[in-house]
Amino acid sequence: MVGVFGKSKPVKIRSCSENRKYGVAARDVKELLKKGCQLLQLPPSGAHVCLYTDGAKVTEKFFQTLPDNTELVLLSRDQTWSGGVAYDISQLLSAALHSDGLIEAAKGLLSEEQTPKWRKVLTDLLQNLEDRSELENRDEDEDWFKGVDARFKTKSAYMKFSCESRIRGYVKEVVDATKTIQKAKVRAEFLKATNCLVEMLKMAKYNGCYFDRTEKEPERLCTREGWFTCQGSFDQDVCQSLHSINPYSNQESRIVFSTWNLDHRIEKKRAVIPALLEALQNHKSADVNLNYFYRLLFTRENLKLVHIVCHKKGAHNLLCETKEIYRQARNADNGRRKAAGKKRRLQ
């Protein structure tokens, strides 16, 4: 409701030194200052009023445009106000001496905050404050395991299974490609190739180590504490938004992490699987460099962990290396390099 002269406008007023707010109705700034100074026991001389959100000074004309129940701050002559966000941060920093106090302070601010951006900041802060990543076993952090099958007793075991499940999904996509093959001979060779890829995966335990923080550093994608960092879209070296998450910290983070993607730089459906199918049209599976296709389909050589926002679903326009597709070509290339090296040593 927009105020008009002669009609009282309800607002909420507070001082810069306390959180308590008071409801006051005033026809204009002059009446607001008079009532506010009496209520908050401030000297009227030099008193002024500003918006709680950003510290903008409330003039008479500005006052008439304010919506009902706008939150204002009454200041004495020498006082200033930088805005509600700055004040809230100072309150949080004061509460930071005790983690429980900080959590309660953040929750209290969030319950009253209406500004979308500041609500987002407070929500992210709360999520990080409620960090129980140092706990590993189910009996230590039962909330984390809500909705998780009872057979998983540790966070790392479940995260490892989660990664394995994603990789198994890629295997299914490879196997499903068999349905598109018309020639029986080609289909038989493709099945041989698929079986070989699966055996390689079994030996690597489906690369579940990528999400398991108990694995050694070269194998895992996270820190020892469980922090994952977005590696950026397929065509970037790093994430421009600096996305990071610790799914080991709480249930919400675990669920949100499930939306992150292991994205193929050279796409499995548009490039890798078609290249494998083409290679087997006139060659046996034994002639194809299946180790190369294994690396493209199931390993970090071609997989990037990305936040859902950084997952570009359009065509990646990246193709398999032709010289890597066949074993004979690769062996010949290696032979040429060795021969060249030997020649240089003899010179």
Structure write-up:
44% of the residues lie in helices and 10% in strands. Strands 2-1-4-3 form a four-stranded mixed beta sheet, covered by helices on one side. The chain has twelve helices and eight strands. The mean pLDDT is 85. It has helices at 29-40, 60-65, 84-95, 99-112, 116-129, 155-176, 184-203, 251-257, 268-279, 290-298, 322-325, 327-346, and strands at 9-14, 22-26, 48-51, 70-75, 228-229, 244-245, 261-264, 303-306. A hairpin with a 7-residue loop joins strand 1 (9-14) and strand 2. With 347 residues, it is α+β, with helices and mostly antiparallel strands.
Number of strands: 8
- Helix count from the secondary structure assignment: 12
Strand order in space, largest sheet:
2-1-4-3
Global mean pLDDT? 85
Shape: elongated
Distance, first to last CA = 91 Å
Following the backbone from N to C, one meets helices and strands in this order, namely EEHEHEHHHHHEEHEHHEHH
Helical fraction equals 40-55%
Which radius of gyration do the C-alpha atoms yield?
31 Å
Largest sheet: 4 strands, mixed
Task: Give me the secondary-structure category.
Answer: alpha+beta
- Binned strand content: 5-15%
Spans of at least 5 consecutive residues with low confidence: none
Q: What is shown here, in short?
A:
This protein is an alpha+beta fold. The protein has helices at 29-40, 60-65, 84-95, 99-112, 116-129, 155-176, 184-203, 251-257, 268-279, 290-298, 322-325, 327-346; strands spanning 9-14, 22-26, 48-51, 70-75, 228-229, 244-245, 261-264, 303-306.
